[in-house]
């Protein structure tokens, strides 16, 4: 199925690209989320008429994400206190929701889907470098310090 992308989609293409996707991906994800339209004559003409408007909107979203990344870079290390045993093992774990809440409390709004924990939840005390993906092109690293209460 051929589609025209209305915004940048990670691992697929940029605004205006005509790409081939599986029909289910197009019908169930791209079309409902308004990230793409089917590549037919009417939609191609409509897209060309709106191209400048869509590019401007995409540039504004990217600029906003870069501004948020600068604010996150300015934050000092985020400290999260949790109950822990004698050897530094936490009672429970620290997940993406806990980290997103701690960063939000520190002054910058972050939702949990933007936080990446590639090794899973944190179970030990210590310092951790985490990536916050604010946009498909903007990834900011923050330092999280897990301390015992």
UniProtKB/TrEMBL annotation:
Domain Ribosomal protein L9: residue ranges: 13-40
SUPFAM superfamilies: L9 N-domain-like, Ribosomal protein L9 C-domain
Gene Ontology molecular function: any one: rRNA binding
InterPro entries, per the entry: Ribosomal_bL9, Ribosomal_bL9/RNase_H1_N, Ribosomal_bL9_bac/chp, Ribosomal_bL9_C, Ribosomal_bL9_C_sf, Ribosomal_bL9_N, Ribosomal_bL9_N_sf
Record flagged with keyword Signal: no
Keywords: Ribonucleoprotein, Ribosomal protein, RNA-binding, rRNA-binding
PROSITE patterns linked to this entry: RIBOSOMAL_L9
Any matching Pfam family: Ribosomal_L9_N
Record-level GO BP terms: translation
GO CC terms of this entry: ribonucleoprotein complex; ribosome
Keyword Translocase appears in the UniProt entry: no
Similarity comment: Belongs to the bacterial ribosomal protein bL9 family.
Protein name: LSU ribosomal protein L9p
């Amino acid at each position: 199925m051929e589609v025209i992308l209305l915004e940048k989609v990670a691992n697929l293409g940029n605004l205006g690209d005509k790409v081939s996707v599986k029909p289910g991906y197009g019908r169930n994800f791209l079309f409902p989320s308004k990230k793409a339209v089917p590549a037919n004559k009417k939609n191609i003409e409509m897209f060309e008429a709106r191209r400048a408007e869509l590019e401007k909107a995409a540039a504004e979203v990217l600029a906003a994400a870069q501004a948020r990344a600068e604010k996150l870079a300015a934050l000092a290390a985020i400290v999260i206190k949790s109950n822990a045993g004698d050897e530094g093992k936490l009672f429970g774990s620290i997940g993406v929701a806990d980290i997103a809440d701690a960063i939000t409390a520190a002054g910058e709004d972050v939702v949990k889907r933007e936080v990446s924990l590639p090794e899973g939840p944190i179970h030990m005390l210590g310092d951790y470098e985490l990536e916050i993906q604010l946009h498909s092109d903007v990834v900011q690293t923050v330092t999280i310090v897990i301390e015992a209460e």
